[in-house]
Amino acid sequence: EIVMTQSPATLSVSPGERATLSCRASQSVSSNLAWYQQKPGQAPRLLIYGASTRATGIPARFSGSGSGTEFTLTISSLQSEDFAVYYCQQYNNWPSRFGQGTKVEIK
Amino acid sequence: EVQLLESGGGLVQPGGSLRLSCAASGFTFSSYAMSWVRQAPGKGLEWVSAISGSGGSTYYADSVKGRFTISRDNSKNTLYLQMNSLRAEDTAVYYCAKVAVEYQLLHEFDYWGQGTLVTVSS
Q1: Per-residue pLDDT, B43
Q2: Residue B23's pLDDT is what?
Q3: Chain A partners of B110 at a C-beta cutoff of 8 Å?
Q4: pLDDT score at B118
Q5: By a Cβ cutoff of 8 Å, what residues of chain B touch chain A?
Q6: C-alpha to C-alpha distance for A14 and A17, rounded to whole angstroms
Q7: Beta strands B45-51; A53-54: pairing state
Q8: In the prediction, which pLDDT does A91 show?
Q9: What is the pLDDT, as a whole number, of residue A47?
Q10: How far is CA A85 from the centre of its chain?
Q11: I need a surface site. Which of A64, B41, B43, B67 has the fewest CB within 10 A?
């Protein structure tokens, strides 16, 4: 089974700053990786799929990169609505697995 | 507009059973695989089970294999999760999620329901 590891667990960022979140797979998942945003009391929302393609309606300040085992989600200039928990998910092999999440909080 | 509405959650004793439902609308239900994903209180997301659009293929996480059964009724646009032999560690919000790519089982999830809470406790 593929294990997904996200870092850091918590990221403290000031509004307007750049945030960089990492996700590592225990073996290659090619580009079969998605990123989700989850706010308290809400369902997750798809941000990025195919490692780097923004989902419909997602602002351009969100970008994804990487392939194989190393992936990055970058939020170029944090807005107040971006403070949330972010999860990566691999869908290259069964079972599909999520990382443990990175909480982006206000500094 | 795609909508997914879960129901059936509640309080159940250890060893008990519960059936969750997810009513889908706004897309051709039979063309898309569906999954259940759960989230224990204060914890991360855990994929639970998946089913193909036809219902002919199913997958389960090891943690629920042999206890949970996923199914669907395409005539009713409804997804189900039958949960038996429930344990305290099954306590979670259960989300149904639509796979983004038609006729593909393993892909990202583009729509999620709002979730239904299952609490296993005596």
Answers
A1: 97
A2: 98
A3: 46, 49, 55
A4: 98
A5: 35, 37, 44-47, 50, 59, 61-62, 95, 100, 106-110, 112-115
A6: 6
A7: unpaired
A8: 97
A9: 98
A10: 9
A11: B41
